[in-house]
Amino acid sequence: MESCEMEESIEYQKKSWIALRKSINGLLNKINKSNIQHIIPELFGENLIRGRGLFCRSIMKSQLNSPIFTDVFAALVAVVIAVVNTKFPQIGELLCKRMVLQLQKSNNKSQTLATVKFIAHLVNQQDPCPLGLHYFGATARNTHEGDIDKREDQLTHQISLDDKVDPQIELDIFKPDPNFAENENKYEEIKKSIVGGGDQESSEDAESESEDEDEQLMKIPR
Taking CA 22 as the corner, what is the angle to CA 135 and CA 2, rounded to the nearest 5 degrees? Predict the structure, then answer.
């Protein structure tokens, strides 16, 4: 009871929010082709539902600052959308809205070109699941790849440049959650279904298939 009361306290939630923001920013700031397969599980370890505004803001800012890594950011987004978006389409939809708004408001040529480049790389992903899931290893692939390949129920977000969009900036700001502990527990279950339990069988499968994955690991569309 004491533990639950502590987790529901505003002070605890605010500290958790700050930690979430720092973690998402830190992971996206250091991602590159050589470490993306390690960054992705760490990123899913963070509550991306609660932090979807932070994720969208951070990845867009990182891409603008380092457009040379656009292919890496697009591959990362493809994984997030492939794995999470069928259950929580808010993440993909929010990113689309914010990129459209960025194009609508931008008067800077380099920023506009960077945003268009990001959108183009995301479009080039087409069916991103096989590519993205190579970054997970055997556990996540066994959990999700078959399901995603069999069902074509991925959501496509269509937003026009003429549309009036709500970027939901309030999602980037801390707000107390009266059901904080419950929602954190729900995401913990989601996280387990994504990254798996890391059992012995999965480890052996990952090791036996590592050579094949090495060849495909860095095949990020350009």
Answer: 105
